[in-house]
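Reopening this one. Same input as before:
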Amino acid sequence: MYAHRSTSPVFAGCLALALAFSACQGRPFGSGSDQDYGIASTQYADIPVPSGMKLIDDPKVSHSSEAGSWRFGDFAYEGSASLADAGNYMMSRMPKHDWKLVSEEVPTPNSRVLRFERGIYSAECRLVRESATTRMEVKYRTLPTTK
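Same output, byte for byte:
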């Protein structure tokens, strides 16, 4: 015969705590708004985008978050602009938003990496040309503080 056991108050408390924490876990992509978790693909107005390039609006690819003055963003764009045109556009437009070029690399003939800084922020623009498409990936970060 089955004997009924009462649940101890400690076990009940642990169970309630576990259920509360499990309710805070993330959910699968495509279920609800990413805004609920402070994640979005909202672009920052101080990063210009070359004409004809479109944001890849997929939370696995383009996303951003900010709290106070802290910012974190990864954005990917694709378009038909040539590598030279997209790079030259960024070189000419970023200073109009008070960004200063701190480095430039050309790792391959079909790629270019431009790094900019402004105050406490950095923006790395990686441009890659494949076939008839140029892809621009922007990594926007708050610089670590040094004391």
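So the earlier flakiness isn't reproducible anymore. For the record, The mean pLDDT is 79.
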